[in-house]
Amino acid sequence: MITRSRLLLISLLALAGVLTFLKIPVASSQGVTIAAMRVDGALPLDDVGAALWEEATTVSIPLSAQIVARPMFPDANVKAVDVRALYNNEQIAFLVEWEDETMDDTAVRVQDFADAVAIQFPLVEGQPFFCMGQQGGNVNIWHWKADWQAGLTARQDVDDVYPDMYVDGYTFANTEAGAAAPVSSYEDTNYIPAMAADNLFASAAYASPVEDLIAGSFGSLTSQSAEMQNVLGHGEFAEGKWRVIFARDLQSPAVEDVQFENNQVYQIAFAAWDGANEERNGQKSTSQWISLQFGEPVAASNASSAAAPGSSGSSGGQSSANALEGLPYIVVPMFLVFGAVVALAIGVWLFSKLPDSKK
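The structure corresponding to this sequence follows.
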């Protein structure tokens, strides 16, 4: 005899089975796909205003505050990033844009924090946990930092924050009394803790504003060796918005790097930090996993007369075809979920009409 409890159990199992079979994610970014545009020519690796970026489809990725691991930060400021992707036979590049009221590119003092943005790729099949991966599910992270970007032009130190300061001298630096001693003046770098710990930012090998990292859960973030730091980057701040380029060869010699091939679909996630809001480390905004798909080739010369990114809004330059390109990935799951909810409602109604097993 079919009772209320049995029908309820059958309905819940059926709903779970449908959602699992159809692979419908419960996320605000479900169905979103970044279509990387193929280019026959060089990629704009350090030009955020290059015309080619305007030809690429812009995808807005929603972010939410990291509230999984402590210290949680429910008041994170960055709510979304706009992403475009280009690739050719050798490299892939991403342009990531987001709004920010202030440019925070100095983190010399302990109370200061820099703006930053990161891209994450899984190193295993499927989708590991979107926040830093999980045990047995490592992720490759490209982390751009505004202070690293500023440091490429002029190395920041304590005398940049406190100009005209005077000290009696540094015990292990070959300098007389006066201003702060640069790292190059130290006779023995063992007395510079950051260098002794192989901190990439303190080493002479630091040549990019992007750090290439590996993680397999919270607390496991590890920088790759200096020889394997192969992600290029360039960021610019203007008119209340950061525009940051990430670029790397499609194939990397590093074992713990994501490898790209044409005609493949990859998973990608994003995170962003607002330094003015004291965001750092796990206190950030993150996205769910997004699909990254390689597209068809487009000649570089075709984009020569396009306007700069952002000239007509955050999604400027998208054609109507591009705008409708991902519509089925959004509408179809919505109708499937709606149908599942209707089926569950019918099941509840039938449930109310059946006799109770206790009677």
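The domain at 32-143+213-325 is CATH 2.60.40.1190 (Immunoglobulin-like).
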